[in-house]
Amino acid sequence: MSEVGTVENPLRVAIIGAGPSGFYATEHLFKQKGLTIEVDLYDRLPTPFGLVRNGVAPDHQKIKSVTAVFDRTAKKPGFRFFGNVELGKDITVEEMRQYYHALIYTTGAQTDRPMNIPGADLEGHHPATEFVAWYNGHPDFRDYQFDLSQERVAVVGIGNVAMDVARILCRTPEELKQTDIADYALDALSKSNVKEVYVLGRRGPAQAAFTTPEIKEFGEMEDADVFTIPEEVELDPLSEASLSESADRGTQRKVEIIQSYASNQPTGKSRKLIVRFLVSPTELFGDENGRVKAMKIVHNELYKTDAGSLRPKATDKTEVLDVGLVFRSIGYRGVPLPGVPFNDSWGVILNEDGRVINPDTKQPVPGEYTAGWIKRGPSGVIGTNKPDAVASVDLLLTDLRDGNLIAPTTPDAAAIAALIAARQPHYFTYADWQKLDELELANGAAQGRPRLKFTSVAAMIAALGK
Ligand code: NAP
Known about the structure:
By secondary structure, the chain is an alpha/beta fold. It has 17 helices and 20 strands.
């Protein structure tokens, strides 16, 4: 057999997870000059784009335009999409290794970090990730229930996901109608009784994880006023010193915006967004039916660690917030893939710079790589995954040159397609997705909305008459 990467013997790569990292890895592979490469991109959902479809807030439609770049990648010769195919269920890693020279895992972070406080198991306390997946029409979450009859809600954490959740809770039906939010979520949120949303940060304004456009957007809501509390947004001496030392203009601007909200007065809007700082939940209290009815919070102060970062420390001042619904938004977390080494304490695939590592030998598993959130954890914006995926693919290409990839018994595109078709007759090709996409756009246009999503796999299959 000729060298791998030639017309007679193309380099065959399977990428598992069709979110941004999967597409960025594909794009970088297809950029290689002088190599013939075939990429099969798999996803457990029939639809591609991962968090761009199921995570990015529906009122941030512009961010979703990155899919145009992914569409261009999907047009390259040698590209195939296998949607609705799940690794570990429809096909195993061992089987994949018979058909490909390399595998790249780009499955993102599908769950979240727990909040271990008394009362955390009460009904009415949810991971923000579930609410996000629900309002975005992720098929696994469409039947989840959130009690929007409650008037007061707390969102724990002040990253951009917390901001998304708080904003969506405060949008008017008219604002939501302009988005591609799932139809059942539009309906439920239109009937929502929510009046006050608390967003709770454990550190101060200078350490807020949300970005400036997100906090500015809080001040521009159609029917919600935003407030901060003067004594919580005054910088403490440690934050003051670190901010002036770093001369970080971006953070200074962010702090100014946060501080400006402290003098806001109610303007008669029907909802309130209250961003709190230097507070941590310590307990959830339930009613006689086991439902959240209140949250105890403790006020924090900051101290400097030996490494120089500012961390929160509880004081003896506490407070009780009457809230009937709680979302924790304190970070996503990856889940293990069957047959793939996992670092359980970090919630990522066990890897060194993107090469999957065998936990026993501590050596790379030949031909297996990872990129994106399942490689490095849930940080950064969509574009952050591009250099990350490029770095992993470059290691793959180095290993190709050094002869360190998999030597598959059947490096045959038709053979693996036949196996997938036998295991999952309802698999989706990219052409299938494009038809579904057209239908969603047309159904949306009929209602004056950007898109009306299919939210169940059965409905997607039926829509294509498969
Ligand atoms: P994140 O940015 O890491 O924020 C997590 C937040 O949870 C932080 O405020 C963190 O506080 C807090 N937290 C962690 N443990 C906590 C605890 N035990 N108690 C209280 N608070 C706790 O995570 P994310 O919001 O899930 O976002 C993930 C990534 O996606 C981020 O990079 C984000 O920027 C990105 N994203 C971007 C957009 C956008 O561009 N519009 C939208 C959504 C998400 P500390 O800082 O004190 O640890």
